[in-house]
Amino acid sequence: MRLLILFLLFGGIAAIQDDNELLGQPEIQCNTDTIDMQFRTRKQFNGKVYVKGSYNRPECRVDYSSKDEFGRPVGGIKLNHGACNMDRQRMIAPEGMMFSTILIVSFHPLFLTRMDKAFHIKCMYKEATRTVTAAIDVSNLPTESVQSDLPMPSCSYTIRRDQLDGPILKYAKVGDQVVHRWQCDSEEYGLLVHSCYVEDGQGDKQMIIDERGCHTDHLLIGDPTYVEALNMAYRESFVFKFADRIAVRFQCEIRLCLKEDGGCDGVTPPMCLFQDENSIQKQIVKRNAKTFSPKEADMFSQTVYVIDKDSEDEPNKEELRELAPNSICLAPEVFTSIVTFATLTIVFLTTVLMIICYQQFCKTEIKNLSGDYQY
Question: Which CATH number, 1.10.3470, 1.20.58, 2.60.40, 3.30.1360, labels domain 21-127?
Answer without folding.
Answer: 2.60.40
